[in-house]
Amino acid sequence: MASHRQRNLVVMRHAKAEWPDGPDHERPLAERGRKDAVETGHRLLDHGVTPDLVVCSPAVRTRETWRLVGKVYDHKPHTVYDERVYEASAQALLYLVQETPDDVDTLLLIGHNPGVATLVNALAGSGEGDALGRLREKYPTSATAVLGFHTAWSDLQERSAHLHSFDTPAS
User: Whole-model pTM above 0.85?
Assistant: First the structure.
């Protein structure tokens, strides 16, 4: 049955952004954010994480984050810039994740706090080592959680996923 295979949800908070005058949606990445995004891409690749689909907020800082993270991949996954990710609650993000097509094994979601942190905290029922503790402490910019589960995307529920890793630029 297709619904019982391993699936991975990778939830990434955008990299560090500037705070210029102007709309929040238009904030670009800071120099540190650009460096962190490239490092995050390499870390995902080193962990064998290759997304089949990327769902990304259309804000400038999230688009720039994905452009830099995505440079490490030879194969370019299908990418959707979805306005619903911007300023989304954890519940709204969960609904969006549950819409993922069944042929997708690994989804990379790139968004914003507090939604991404709250979503990962809600989904992670178990975790490797100290990953859950670090996750619950802080979800900084460029932080990336890899959650695994064995249900259909549409059946993903609170506490039903295992937190395989939680990486931050500092770790």
Answer: yes
